[in-house]
Design goal:
mainly beta, single chain, 5-stranded mixed sheet, 3 domains, Immunoglobulin-like, 0% helix, 290 residues, 4-stranded antiparallel sheet
Length: 290
């Protein structure tokens, strides 16, 4: 059976991710086949595969041409080899090495198990960090590290099984994780944990004294950044005397708009009766409103 491992690195003349997969043989003298993702440069000419028994110091190299898979023959059983790939263009300009991949010939390396579903809250608010945990087992007892896909088009670097993330937009996101052992063998992705992220909300407490009303009234929930209009109306024979917003007088207004709400607020309205006076004219009384 072939065991697959992945390696990620970068080429230099156009920065692109290179993925190299290793398919090792299980017996002495049998070949090891490596594969990598194709570069996308228009002037790409080919690849050079480097390998040797000393990390970073490759005693062998092969120009494999413009292909993305190559088999190295007759590697020695029980020996650890180190592999890297470069790309070169029509001008024979060669890129840097990809990230190095190691493999011990004849030693079976099993992939880590599928990680547990990341555990975390089911809901949250934007721009707030939440912690996620997962776990996987490596059949060979190798150390493992983890990568999280946050479901928003970003993923974490490889690292610990407990990671933090915050979302900048509202929505429902699938969070999943995978594991990688010290030989770069990958597990499958875990199942999704879904989290729903919302904008923060704030409250506006609206109240009215007797002989009038404010609408809406009571505790009004408002999403962050939104606007909210309140209207004030007096009962018959009454008028607005004063409207207080967060304790400060706005005068005898009949409407008030909170704009771009980013915190909690209060609004209260008070009312007074309309005063009537009477003037005598030609033995008749005329009512006048003050």
């Amino acid at each position: 059976p072939h065991i697959t491992a992945l390696l990620r690195g970068f080429f230099t003349f156009v920065t692109l991710t290179s993925v190299m997969a290793l398919f090792p043989a299980m017996a002495f003298g049998e070949p090891v086949t490596l594969a990598w993702d194709a570069n996308q440069e228009s002037d790409l000419k080919g690849y050079i595969l480097y390998y040797g028994t000393d990390s970073g110091n490759y005693s062998n190299n092969t120009d494999v041409g413009n292909v993305t898979q190559h088999t190295t023959p007759d590697l020695q059983d029980g020996v650890t080899y180190y592999f890297a790939v470069t790309a070169y263009n029509d001008a024979d300009i060669e890129s840097d090495y990809s990230e190095e991949l190691s493999h011990t010939v004849g030693v079976v390396n099993n992939n880590p198990s599928k990680p547990t579903t990341p555990n975390s809250p089911d809901s949250g608010i934007i721009d707030t960090s939440y912690t996620f945990n997962t776990n996987a087992r490596d059949p060979d007892g190798d150390s493992v590290e983890y990568q999280f896909d946050w479901g928003d088009g970003t993923s974490s670097s490889w690292g610990a099984a407990s990671r933090n993330h915050a979302w900048s937009t509202a929505g429902t996101f699938c969070i999943k994780a995978r594991a990688r052992d010290t030989y770069a063998s990958l597990s499958e992705w875990s199942d999704c944990h879904y989290i729903t992220i919302s904008k923060p909300t704030h409250t506006i407490t609206a109240s009215a004294g007797s002989n009038g009303n404010i609408s809406p009234s009571g505790t009004v929930v408002v999403s962050q950044g939104s606007d909210k209009i309140f209207t004030i109306a007096a009962n018959q024979n009454y008028q607005v005397s004063e409207v207080l917003v967060d304790g400060s007088s706005e005068g005898a207004i009949t409407s008030y708009t909170f704009t771009n709400v980013t915190g909690n607020h209060t609004i209260s309205a008070n009312f007074k009766s309309i005063e009537w006076t009477h003037k005598r004219k030609n033995s008749h009384y005329i009512s006048m409103i003050r």
